[in-house]
Amino acid sequence: MIFRSSTSNITLLSLKLRDDDFTLMDLGSFAEINCPSTKDTPTEPITSRLPETPSLSSVTPPGTSRTANTTHVTASATTDTHATTMTSVTTQPAQSKKQLADFISALNGTVNRTVATNIVNNLSGTIGSQSSSNPNDNNKLIQAVEKLLQIIEMENETLTIQTPSLTVGLKKVNGTNFQKTSFTMTDSGLQVDGGSTNGSTPQGSIVLPASLLNNLSPKEKNQTSRIQFCFYQQTSLFQYGVLNTTKLISGVLASSVAALNISGLRENVMITLRNTESVSSDKNVLCTFWKSDLNNGSGGWSSDGCTVLSSTANETVCSCNHLTSFALLLDFSNQSITSYQQVIILNNITYIGCGISSIFLMVTLVMYLRSEKLRKVVPNKILIQLCFALLLLNLVFFLDSFLAKQLDSVGLCIPTVFFLSYFLLVSFTWVALESVHIYLTIVKVFNNYVAHFMVKVTLVGWGIPLIVVIIPVAINKSVYGITSTMLDNGSMEYLQVVFDYSFIY
């Protein structure tokens, strides 16, 4: 049974009856007194002093008397009867995550702003002080925060509670006539529907389109009375879902509509998040959301339904077709080597290997080209073409490594990388053509004559790769360019790239 005082000073008075046992709980002071009973023992009064709080008033349940700061509970008790008092929210904020999650999940009805502020303060202290915990407890606490936002009483159009680790905001809405809404988390506080950011990049913001509730039924629209917003400045609750190849580089922004599932939007929501560390243009940033049912209920990050619209060194703009908790992950699974020593070693190995290869390719070409007898055989003609393509590939590779360091030679960058990719494809093509000739000679044997065979294979070997590399340049020549990587000694390593989103040479 739950009793609530009609006076505004009492936050919540809960009385639980089970056989002859009962519990008094005051959420304003977060104090609880358990009073078990034994029927065959004499009774004596049990006195428990509650933490001082201005929210407590003179409400006297049956069998209970109290003075200014003391509550007297009379019940049947034995000598081993004990009273348990839960720690005040405001005096000891570092509650366990499981305890907080269970407490919030057990709340019935609504809570006023005072109680909500106490709980959010406790959440902030817990999130900020406990970096590691059971991932299941973390996920339960995230879900408990969502429930808390749904049961906070709203007296005004908007409500905000800001703490060092967690900021929450609420806004009343009309579900049948929903208007475009935005929440912006700045360094100075939470702003609802616009406001000045003082020229700084917001920590996070979300814009909800006017069509947000179009997929809801008329009944669900009538039940919609609020929009919830939450921003986690501390992200310790969400670290379990981060893979070894990714890193969380933003705060976590969450938004929801009452207790409804908002997904499959025709007009996506826009999320802007500040990067907690500078991100260079060659890094891959992912827009992700927290999915509670991943990892056997421990939660995890997913990018389904979210795309990156733009990304700079300081912020990233995302577009998602649903509402939940959003954050940015930096994917460094394909990161360049940043050790200067490793770069020097790999460069030397590359130059030595390509140099030796080039020398023997030239020796092979000289031997075959000087002998007319060797030049007339078809297999040798194909081998000469292959060696010539590989030699040109090695020479362009050497040239590429020097041009990449000449930043004022941008005009030479595109043709250099163009020929680099072209000769690589030519080499693979001639290997394939040599395989075709071996098939005709050894497998087919009879009736394997092809008129003008060398003319045809030469056109294929040098022509098809040319078409393949011309098409991307004709569409967008910016697919070829220069990228750089900062090494651990402070120097820059420059690379010429082709299709920088797929292949790096």
Task: Explain this structure.
The chain has 505 residues and is an alpha+beta fold. Helices cover 33% and strands 26% of the residues. The strands form 5 sheets. Strands 8, 9, 13, 14, 15, 17, 18 and 21 form an 8-stranded antiparallel beta sheet that branches. Strands 11-10-12-16-20-19 form a 6-stranded antiparallel beta sheet, with no helix packed on it. The chain has a 4-stranded antiparallel beta sheet with strand order 1-2-3-4, with no helix packed on it. Helix 7 runs antiparallel to helix 8.
List the topology elements.
Elements: E1 2-3, E2 13-18, E3 21-26, E4 31-35, E5 43-49, E6 64-66, E7 70-76, H1 97-105, H2 113-129, H3 135-151, E8 158-162, E9 166-172, E10 181-186, E11 189-192, E12 204-208, H4 218-223, E13 226-232, E14 246-248, E15 252-257, E16 269-274, E17 284-291, E18 300-302, E19 306-311, E20 315-320, E21 325-331, H5 340-370, H6 372-375, H7 378-403, H8 410-444, H9 453-475, E22 480-486, E23 492-498, E24 503-504
Antiparallel strand pairs: 1-2, 2-3, 3-4, 5-7, 6-7, 8-9, 9-13, 10-11, 10-12, 12-16, 13-15, 14-21, 15-21, 16-20, 17-18, 17-21, 19-20, 22-23, 23-24
